[in-house]
Specification:
The chain contains 13 helices and 12 strands. It is an alpha/beta fold.
Length: about 350
């Protein structure tokens, strides 16, 4: 069995990343098969529970208030609407619902109370619940954990050196601190990045080094390809090569062998053959459904047809247990929660 390491160097990861492509994919595929059922893919659905108007300046994001991207600003969704979306996603094959809010950080107010209620309601549907809400304090992370939150997404986006070119409204250390708060609350960590931002290969490798050298590897690492959006500073960035995605996925699989590696944004631009290479390289999670927050994504039907062709199967919810489910929730029916 492959050793799980937390001391990867930049040079070691670079050597893996730059190895001949077929050798790289073969090594990653071999490690993937050693550590999990390679045919099992987690299907998640991502919805925007609060859209637009974000005060941050992330150069890639259509939800930043300072950019004119045509995104309509919407207040937080009603719980009943979120539950309906979750049910549709579950019927389509999703085992996890990820809820995103365009906030810089969580505030202790009525909107956060509403998110807590949403987490409880979706958790009671036998779906894993993930949130991405911006920065969290230690007490806020614990409150989400007490509500039954399964995972929290907080991407590093790029390397620490490249970070200020992409975002100036928070620091790299702010992101790492939120991950620490999430881990302390015993919520599983989902953290990855975006390629195609104009970063160097060294930046990509540095980001992977940071993730692989955390005290515990993230349970989930999303690898996103930039989807350029008109009105953002990165609107004219060229599409990243699928082979760059394959290299990133394969390298991630090799250095974090037990982590779920998510093939995330950018799938609409990929053919089935290109996605198959990503699965071969170690990807074992996708987002399904028509949208990723505000950008297009393949439909459930398209993905199910691809799964059938490639011999893949959806991973069931809570395969690794429910570490934070409160006792009272286990005793409640979905009707009582909703």
């Amino acid at each position: 069995m492959t050793e799980v390491r937390y001391d990867w160097t930049q040079e070691q990861i670079a050597e893996i990343y730059h190895s001949p492509l077929l050798d790289l994919v073969y090594r990653a595929a071999s490690i993937h098969r050693e550590n999990s059922d390679y045919s099992e893919v987690q299907i998640s659905s991502l919805i925007s529970i609060k859209t637009g108007g974000c005060p941050e300046d992330c150069a890639y994001c259509p939800q930043a208030a300072r950019y004119n991207t045509g995104v309509d600003v919407h207040a937080i969704m009603p719980k009943e609407e979120v539950v309906a979306v979750a049910q549709k996603a579950k019927d389509g094959g999703a085992s996890r619902l990820c809820m995103g809010a365009a906030w810089r950080e969580v505030r202790d107010n009525r909107d956060f109370d509403k998110v807590i209620d949403m987490v409880k309601a979706v958790n009671a549907m036998d779906m894993e619940v993930c949130c991405t809400l911006g920065m969290l304090t230690e007490s806020q992370a614990q409150r989400l954990a007490d509500a039954g939150l399964y995972a929290y997404n907080h991407n590093l986006d790029t390397s620490e050196d490249d970070y200020k070119r992409i975002i100036t409204t928070r620091t790299y250390d702010d992101r790492l601190q939120t991950l620490e708060h999430v881990r302390k609350a015993k919520i599983s960590v989902c953290s990855g990045g975006i390629i195609g931002l104009g970063e160097t290969v060294a930046d990509r490798i540095s980001m992977l080094k940071t993730l692989s050298n955390l005290p515990k590897h993230p349970e989930s690492v999303p690898i996103n390809a930039l989807v350029p959006v008109k009105g953002t500073p990165l609107a004219e960035q060229p599409r990243v090569s699928v082979w760059d995605m394959v290299r990133m996925i394969a390298t991630t699989r090799i250095i974090m062998p037990k982590t779920v590696v998510r093939l995330s944004a950018g799938r609409t631009e990929m053919s089935t053959i290109e996605q198959a290479f990503c699965f071969m390289a170690g990807a074992n999670s996708i987002f399904a459904g028509e949208k990723l927050l505000t950008t297009p994504n393949p439909s459930f039907d398209e993905d199910m047809a691809m799964f059938e062709l490639l011999g893949l199967k959806p991973r069931k919810a809570f395969k690794n247990g429910r570490p934070n489910e409160p006792k009272e929730l286990r005793e409640m029916s979905i009707n009582e929660v909703i």
